[in-house]
Amino acid sequence: MELKERFIKFMDEHEAEMIEDVKTLCRINSVRGAYEVGKPYGEGPYNALMTAMGICERYDMSTTNYDDYVVTADMNDKERALDILAHMDVVAGGEGWTVTTPFDPVVRDGRIYGRGTSDDKGPAVAALYAMRAVKELSVPVTKGCRLILGSDEESGMSDVKHYYSVEKEAPMTFSPDSSFPVTNVEKGHFRMKLSASFDKEEAEAALIELSSGDTINIVPGRGYAIVRGLDDDLIREYAEKVEKETGVSFTVSGTTEGLRIDAEGQSAHAAHPDDGKNAALALLHLINLLPLSDCRQTRLLKSLEELFPYGDNRGRALGIAVDDELSGPTTVSGDILRADAASISLEVDSRTAVAADEDNTEKPARKRVAEAGFELDCAMRPPHVVDGDSDFVKTLLRCYEDVTGLKGHLDSMGGGTYVHDLKNGVAFGAVAEGTDTNMHGADEFMSIKELKDAAVIFALAISELCR
Fold first, then answer.
1. CATH number at residue 68
2. How far apart are the C-alpha atoms of 201 and 368, rounded to whole Å?
3. Range of the domain at 204
4. Is 58 in the same domain as 89?
5. Count of domains in the chain?
6. Cα within 13 Å of Cα(286), Cβ side
7. Which value, to the nearest 10 degrees, does the dihedral of the CA atoms of residues 164, 168, 171, 172 take?
């Protein structure tokens, strides 16, 4: 029996175990929390990390705990040739789930549903089972493979910075935190926070409060505003107009303060803003259509919309639209919007093309934001590019083709993974090309077949790269 068939048989025989391990990890709410002694990212990420370490030890992997930031599992005691980087933290559960609740994973129709099933607990388990298969089937290797599990990927990646302050990179690294085939280009990041403070003015028709979004890398799917001094039928008339333009729906209800407008859009990963319906920017558009009294607040809200009009996911109005053949266009997503009688702020997540730089991105953004009356706090992070003609990348593509029968190719992405700052790191799986797992959204899932296929692909890659 050829090696691929042996790996396929192994995954079939251990399917139930694999599913249960994924469910065990996904029951843990590992959204980053407040620092505690011995728990740098809070209770949830720590519990997920320790649970994962226990699973690795159960399968006879040698584990190491790096100050509760990262845990590792080594397949053997040989010199490392390959690192696999995955993470145990997740984004917030969010709203709009229909199949289950975020942290109660269930299996239905060949899928495991729950937060983290595809980002990134399921893929981490696939990588572990790949190492387990190589080890338990006594596949001959002369080099080592290490699974590195972090707990702060979604909130800054300070965990791997801590790890690499004491450990060297392996000659080759992949992260199963994307989709197949191989992503060798990751866009840069340009995160912005626009803010303005002003004296409170008494106005007859006014916005009292506006709030939408809570996570910088998620397109907000919901939000609300409270206004006073307007007729509810008039608001509904404008809301219907905006709903036709944006696809975001609105409901109007009475409160003790005035009228509340709730927006219902569709969340998505900020790297793919076209996949969402941004409730924050739709609310901003609606508020600016309403006949509110003229004041500093309303003028600033209009200026803000001029910079970030609904549907402008390329940054044209901001003057930062850049496109190139290697990575595609810069994307822009306004994700956290707050406004009240004395302040307005918007936090923006932009994934920048490889060709983006200070001159064509940061400088024009600063200029236009200042002209609009806002202060800007921003930071640029450069893109990541790995040679697609390297033996490493060609081996990954060959393993992918061998298992799937599909032609391998290179991709770029807007999302950032753990390998972004590694010299020879790429994203490799674990989701099949073309599958939308609702990552960062409601009803996130991982196909069981795709999970097993990924484990087989990873096992082949380990056996070749460590041979």
1. 3.40.630.10
2. 26
3. 189-378
4. yes
5. 2
6. 37
7. -20
| pLDDT at residue 202, rounded to an integer | 86
Could you give the 3-state DSSP secondary structure of residue 232?
Answer: helix
- What is the pLDDT, as a whole number, of residue 96? 92
Task: Tell me: do 300 and 178 sit in the same domain.
Answer: no
Within the chain, which residues score under 50 in pLDDT?
none
Name the domain boundary from 317, 343, 378.
378
**Could you read off the pLDDT of 283-296 as tens digits, one per residue?**
999 999 999 999 99
Do 231 and 359 reside in the same domain of the chain? yes
CB 286 within 8 A of CB 210: no
Same domain, 169 and 307: no
- Phi, psi torsion values for 51, nearest 5 degrees: -65, -40
Q: Which residues lie below 8 Å from residue 244, measured CB to CB, with a gap of 6+?
A: none
Task: Looking at the structure, tell me whether residues 354 and 390 fall in a common domain.
Answer: no
Tally of CB atoms within 10 A around 1? 8
* Angstrom distance (rounded) from CA 328 to CA 188: 12
Residue 158 corresponds to which tokens in the numbers above?
Answer: 């300070």
Let me know: does 301 contact 207? Beta carbons within 8 Å: yes
Tell me how far apart the alpha carbons of residues 94 and 78 are, in angstroms, rounded to a whole number.
43
What pLDDT was estimated at residue 304? 98
265 in helix, strand or coil? coil
Amino acid, single-letter form, for residue 115: R
Beta strands in 243-313 (DSSP E): 249-254, 259-264, 268-269
Write the single-letter amino acid at 394. K
Q: How does pLDDT run across 60-73, given as a tens digit for each residue? A: 999 999 999 999 99
Q: Which residues pair with 183 in a beta bridge?
A: 411, 427
Q: What span, in angstroms and rounded, lies between the C-alpha atoms of 8 and 453?
A: 8
The count of C-alpha atoms lying within 13 angstroms of the C-alpha of 252, restricted to the half-sphere facing its C-beta, is 18
Does 206 share its domain with 246?
yes
Q: How far apart are CA 417 and CA 425, in angstroms?
A: 10
Instruction: Note the pLDDT of residue 347.
Output: 98
Of the chain, the end-to-end C-alpha distance in Å amounts to: 19
The DSSP bridge partners found for residue 65 are 71
The reported pLDDT for the residue numbered 269 is 85
Dihedral sign, Cα of residue 40, residue 45, residue 51, residue 53: negative
